[in-house]
Amino acid sequence: MAKEFDVVSSKRPLLFMAAAGGQEAISSTSQYTSTSAYDVFLSFRGEDIRKTFLDHLYTALVGAGFHTFRDADEIERAENIKLELEQAIQQSRSSIVVFSENYASSKWCLDELVMIVERRRRTSQFVLLPVFYHVDPSHVRNQTGSLAAAFAGHEEWFAKERIQGWREALREVAELAGMVLLNQADGFNEELIGVSKAFDASMSNLLSSSLVYLAWLIKIPSLLSFIIIMNCRHEAKFIKKIVKVIKNRVNRRALDLPSTLVGIDSRVKDINLWLHNGSRDVGIMLLCGMGGIGKTTIARYVFNLNFSRFDSSSFLANIRESFEKPDGLIRLQRQLLADISKGNMTEIFSVDDGINKIKFAMSRQRVLLVFDDVDQEEQLQAILGMQDWFYPSSKVIITTRNVRLLTARASKYEILNVDKLDSNESLELFSMHAFGHNRPNEPFVQLSENVVRQCEGLPLALEILGSSLYGRSIDLWQSAIEKLQAIPNNQILRKLRISYDSLEDRHDRDLFLEVACFFVGEDKDHVVTILDQCEFHTRIGVQNLTDRCLLRVDRYNKIMMHEMLRALGREITCEQSRNPGSRSRLWRHKDSFSVLKNNSATVEIEGLALDMHMLLKRDERVSCINSARPGRIGFFSWPVANSTFNISDEMDLKADAFSTMSRLRLLHINYLHLTGGFKGFPKEIKWLRWHGCPLEYIPSDFPLESPVAIDMSYSNLKTGWCGTKRLGCLKILDLGNCHGLTSTPDFSRLRALERLILKKCTSLIEVHASIENLENSLLYLNLEDCISLSKLPGEIGKLKVLNTLIISGCSNLEEFPMEIERLQALQVFHADRIVMGTIHPTTSVYSSWHAFVRMRTWVSKPRKTLEVSWASLPCSLVDLSLAGCNLFDDAIPSELGNLLSLQNLNLGRNPISCVPTCIKGLTRLQRLNLENCPRLQSVTGIRVLEEINLYNCKSLQKYESETPSCNIVECNNLVEMTLCFKLIPIDDTRVAFVKNQLEPMNNIEMKTYHIATKTTRRGPIQVLFEGCGLLSTFYPGNQVPAWFRTRIRGSSLSFTVPSSPHTSTGGISMCLCFVYSMKEQDHEQFYAIVSNETKDLKLIYGPSCYGCPKADEDMSWVSYWMLGNDKLEADDEITISLLSTKAVEVREIGFHLVHLDLGAEADTVEVKQPAYPSWDSYPEECEGRSGSTRLFGQGTLRFSVKDLLKDVGVTWDPCQAEFRLFTLPASHVHSRSAGDQNL
Question: Does the keyword Hydrolase apply (predicted)?
C-alpha cells in the first residue's frame, strides 16, 4: 500500500526558481563545477606516506586526468601557506583525506581537515573521500588508539574550542563511506597472518631447538622480500580503486538548478529522511502535484544532494516527452544503463534486451534513480521493472501528476504531495523575477500582490508573469494585469494543458470543464447528485481528476481547483468558438449577458452563469444593493446581498432569450430580472441557481419537471410556487435567507427530495405537514435561525431516513415533536442557542420519559421555552451540539450517557465547571468541544479521544487526559496537564533544595509566559514539573545560587563527570542554572542542551513556560534533570549550553551534580514529582548516524531536530543528520487563533 503524507510548509514553504530579472542562471550548488581550479585536494601526513603511498596515489590521479593539489611544503608552513591551502580547498571539487598512523599528531593536518569539512557543509556536491591507510576507522571516529595519544598532547597546548572542532571533524569524516586498506587485501592479510603465526610458534621453541632458530634466520630475508612485494602489489590495486571512485563521483556534474532556492529545505527534509532511513528495503517515492508546482526542481535538488551517497545513480528527465519519440524507450534504457554502469555499457538491441541488462546492473549495486515527469504506468514498465530487481537499500523517486501511477506495479511506496506556496513566499518569488530582489518596489506593491493572488502559489505562474513584467512601467503593469484577468497567460496554460490532454477519455475531460466553469467550491456530494443526472459518472470521474492532480476535495468535502487550472478549463471552452453563443459553456458573466441581451444564443449552450452583482461595477453595485451579507463557501452560496435591490431597466432581460437553448442543463442567474412568460424556457435544466430572485412565487408556467437541484436563496419568495407542481426529480432545495418566506411549499409532489435548506428564513412560521411524504427520501433538514418558527409538525417523526436535523437558533420554538425518538436514522442533531423547558409527557406512548431540563440562552431578551425530552433523543446520534444553551452542571441529564454511538459532542459556551459524568462512559466519543466555558475548572476522567477543544476556558486549572490533540490556547489559569507539565507553588513542593532556596521569595510576584496556552500572567514563583524527570523554576535573580559547586560567566561550559561511590548504584542527576536577560519583551524561546560527548548523546529541553524579566532585571532558571547511568556516568565529558535567539542574553551558568543513592544528599532523596515518563519510556528517539538526540518540552510534542533548532535561527544540514520524527506519548498541544474556534 502507498503511504501518503502531505507536505504543508508550516514554517517556510518552498520558494522555487528565482533569478534576477528573470534570466536563466546556474545554481550555486552546481556553479563550482565550472570555476574549480582543482579536481582533487589531497590531505595527508607527509612524514608517514609522502614518498610512498601518497606519491603513487598522486601520480595515478594525474595520469587519470585529474588536476590534483598536493602540498609539498608541509614542514615549513607559515600563515601564508595556511591561506593558500584554504584557497585551494575552496577551489577544489573533491578531497581525498588519507588517515595514516600519525595524521592526528599534526595540528596542520587537523586544521586542514576542519577547512575541508566546512567546505563540504557549505556545498553539498563537494566530494569527500576518506582513505584509512593502515588505520582502523573506529579509531578515527572515537579518537582512540594512536589518535588518543595525539590528542592527549594537543590538550596541553591548544584551546578546548579548537580541539573540539578537530574532534567533530574527525568524527564526521569517519562516518562517511570511505576506503580502508586493511579491508582491501584480497587474502593478502590472511596469508601474512599465517606466516606471522608460524614465526611466533617457531620462536617459542627457540630454547629447545637451535636448528629451527637458524632456519628462521635463513628465511627472514626472503620473508621480508615477500611482504614488500605483496604490499606493493596490494597498494597498487588499492590506488586503482581510489581513482575509479573519484572518476565515478567527481566526473558526475551536478544537475543545473536555479540560482535562488529559498526555503527548499522544508520540502526536501522528509525526502532526505526517507532516503537515509537505514532500511534495507527498496524504497519508491512518488512526488506528486499539478504541473508547475515544482516537482522537478525538488527532485533535482534532492538528487544533487544525495547521488554521491549511492554506488550509482541516474536522473532521467522528461520521460513523458521522450517516450513519445521514435525509439524513445530504448534511448531511455541506454541512458539508464550508461549511468548505473558508469560508462561500461554494452549495446542494447531491443527493449527486452535492455530490460535484462538493466535488471542485471541494478541487482549488483545500491542505486538512486529519479524518473522525472512520468505520466503512465507503461512508461515505467521497461525501465523500472519490479522492486525485486533492485539491490537492497536502493531508492527510486518518481515525479508525476498521476497519484495512482504505481497502484498495480508496486506493493509498497510513499506518496509526497507538493503543496503550493503561501502568500509571503509567492510574493518573494515573484519579486525575484519582476524586480531582481525579494520584495516589490514601493510603487508596485499593490499591483504585485494582485498578480500573486491570481497565481495562487503556483511557482510556474509566478516565474513567468514576474519575468514578463520585469522592467515595465506602472501603466504597462496595469494593462497587463487587466489582460491577464481576461486572457490567461498562454505559456502557463500550455504547460498545464499537458495534464488535461493526458486524461483517458472525453468523459473525464468534459467533467473537468464542467467543474472548472461552474462547480469549484461546491460540495462534492451535491455535484455528484447534479452531474449524475447529466449523464456523467461523476464519482469515479472526480476520483480520476483528483488522481491526476487536476482537482482536490478538501476537509469540508468541497471540490477545489487551482485558479490556474480553473483558468485553463475556462479557456478551453472559449476556444470552441469566437462567438460566445456557439460555445457549450458560458461562464464569463459579460459574455452571458451579451448573448441573452442580443438573443444570440444557440442550441450548443449546455451551461450558463450570469451573476449581475459580479457584472456590475463596484460603485453601481453599492447603489443597487441595500445591504451586503457575507456568504459562505458551500454548494448554494455566493457573495450575497439582501433580497431588496434595484437594478435599472436596461439590465432586465426577457425570459424568451433562453428559448433557443434546448440543451441547457446548468443555469446560474443570480440577481437577474426576467420579464415575460416562461412558456419557452428550457425544459432540461438539471441545476437552477437563482439567488436574489425578485419573484414572490414561481409562476405556473415555469418548467420544474427536470431540475435535480434548485437554489433560490436570498430571494423575495413568500411561498414556493403557484399551483400544483410535480417536481419528481428534485433532490436539493435551498430557500435559505428568503426573509419573506412564511410557509414551506407542499412537499406531496417532491417525493425525491433529499436535502431541504431553510436556514435564516426569519419569517417562516410553519413547516407544511406534507413533509411526511418525504419519509423515504429526506436526509438533511436545516432550520437554523428560523426565529419565527413556533412549532414543528409531528409528522417530522415519520422521516425514516433523516440523517441531519439542525434547529440551532430557533429561539421561539414552543413545541418539539415527541416523535423524534422514531428518527432511528438521525445521526446529527444541532440545537445551539435555544431555550428548552422542563415538562413531563402526557401521552401514554411516552409515560416512561425522564424529567426535562430547563435551559436559557445567553441573551438579554427573554425567549420562549422549547419542550423536549432528553430521553427521546435516538441512540443513533453520532454528532450532538448543545452549545450556548446556558447549561449548568446539574442541568445536563444522565440520559446523554445512553447515546452510545455518539462521536462528536459540543457543549461549548456553557457555564459548566467540570466534564459531565454522564459522558465519561461514551466509549465511541472522539471529539469533545468545551470551548469558551468560563466556569470550567477541570477536565478529568476522560478517556483518550481524538481531539478536545478547551479554547479560552479562563478558569481551567487541571487537565487530565492523554488525548493526542488538545487546544488549550487562552487557558491562562491552567497549572496541570497530564504527561506534559504541572505547576506547583513553592509551599506545596517537596523538592527540598528548591523549597529551601526559594521559600524566602514566596511573596515575590513575577510575570511568566506559557507557551502552550499562549498566555502571560503575573503570580508567585512556582515549580514546573515536566516529563522525562525534569523540574524547573524561574525567579528574579542576577547570579547562580551559592550552593552550585560550579559557576561560570558565559553561555556554555564543559566538564568531566567525577567518580563517586554512589554512582554505580543509583545513577546521577544534575541541577543547572542559567541567569539571563531579555533585550525585548516579545515572547522568546530557548533550549537547554546537555551534550554527552563520550556517549555521543544530546538532551535538549525547552521549558513549557518561563519567567519574563523586566527591562532592568535578570531572571534565573534552575532546572533539575533526573538521569541514569546510561545518560550520565563517571568520566563522561559533558557540555552544557543555552540555545536562544539574540534577544536572550545568558550571563552566567552553573551546575551541580547529584548522586541518587541512599547515601546521597538528603535534599535529592526527597525529590518527588508527578508520575511522568522517564527519558527511556518513549518508543522512539531521534537517532542520527553518529548518535542520538532526545527532546522534550515547550508543548511541541511532534517535531524533528531541524524544526526545533530552526525556531531559534540555527541551520541544520539534513544530509548530515537524518533524524526520525520523535513522537512523545503525550497530549499534542494544538495552538489555534481566536478566530478558529470550531472543533
Answer: yes
The alpha carbons of the chain give a radius of gyration, in whole angstroms, of 38
CB atoms within 10 A of CB 890: 9
Catalytic residues: 112
Helix, strand, coil percentages for the chain (3-state, nearest 5): 35, 20, 45
What does the H/E/C string look like for 1001-1040? HCCCEEEEEECCCCEEEEEECEEEEECCCEEEEEEECCCC
Long-range contacts formed by 336-340: CB under 8 A, 24+ apart: 336/369, 336/383, 337/361, 339/312, 339/313, 339/314, 339/315, 340/312, 340/313, 340/314, 340/365, 340/367, 340/369
Cα–Cα distance measured from residue 325 to residue 321, given in angstroms and rounded to the nearest whole number? 7
User: Which three three-digit cell numbers place residue 755?
Assistant: 436535502
The answer to whether 1077 and 1113 are in contact (CB under 8 A) is yes
The answer to whether 938 touches 956, Cβ cutoff 8 Å, is yes
Give the angle subtended at the CA of 759 by the CAs of 756 and 764, to the nearest 5°: 95
Report the range of poorest mean pLDDT among 326-330, 445-449, 1172-1176. Answer: 1172-1176
Which one is predicted more confidently, 989 or 868? 989
Q: Which residue has the higher pLDDT, 710 or 623?
A: 710
| Alpha-helical runs (H) found in 533-624 | 538-547, 563-574, 589-597, 612-615, 618-624
pLDDT tens for 420-452 read 888 888 888 888 888 888 888 888 998 999 898
Burial class (CB in 10 A: 0-12, 13-18, 19+), 1086: buried
Torsion of CA 50, 55, 57, 59, to 10 degrees: 150
Q: What pLDDT is attached to residue 597? A: 93
Dist. CA 121–CA 178, nearest whole Å: 17
Would you give the DSSP letter of residue 309? G
Angle at 562 between CA 558 and CA 566, to 5 degrees: 95
CB 461 within 8 A of CB 468: no
Q: Which residues, other chains included, contact 179 with Cβ-Cβ below 8 Å and sequence gap of 6+?
A: 129, 130, 131, 132, 238, 241, 242, 245
Range with the largest mean pLDDT of 176-185, 637-646, 854-863, 1136-1145: 1136-1145
Query: Phi/psi of residue 514, each to 5°?
Result: -60, -45
Taking the alpha carbons of 545, 551, 557, 558 in that order, is the dihedral positive or negative?
A: negative
- What does pLDDT average to over the chain? 76
pLDDT tier at 1078 (50, 70, 90 boundaries)? confident
From CA 874, how far away is CA 901, in angstroms rounded?
Answer: 10
| d(C-alpha 723, C-alpha 678), whole Å | 15
Q: How confident is the model at residue 348 (pLDDT cuts 50, 70, 90)?
A: confident
User: Could you report the per-residue pLDDT of 197-215, keeping only the tens digit for each?
Assistant: 344 444 444 434 444 443 4
User: Would you say residue 406 has pLDDT above 90?
Assistant: no
Outline where 435-574 has alpha helix (H): 445-455, 459-468, 474-486, 490-501, 506-514, 524-532, 538-547, 563-574
781: confidence class by pLDDT, cuts 50, 70, 90: very high
Rounded CA-CA distance 103/105 in Å is 6
Number of CB atoms found within 10 A of residue 955's CB: 15
The confidence score (pLDDT) of residue 579 equals 94
Q: For residue 67, report the phi and psi dihedrals to the nearest 5 degrees.
A: -75, 110
Given pLDDT bands bounded at 50, 70 and 90, which one contains residue 253? low
Q: How far is CA 1 from the centre of its chain?
A: 21
Q: Are 84 and 108 in contact (CB under 8 A)?
A: no
The upper half-sphere exposure of residue 1154, i.e. CA atoms within 13 Å in the direction of its Cβ, equals: 22
Give the length of the chain.
1239
User: 611-630 burial string, b = 16+ CB within 10 Å, else e?
Assistant: bbbebbeeeebeebbeeeee
Other beta carbons within 10 angstroms of residue 456's beta carbon come to: 19
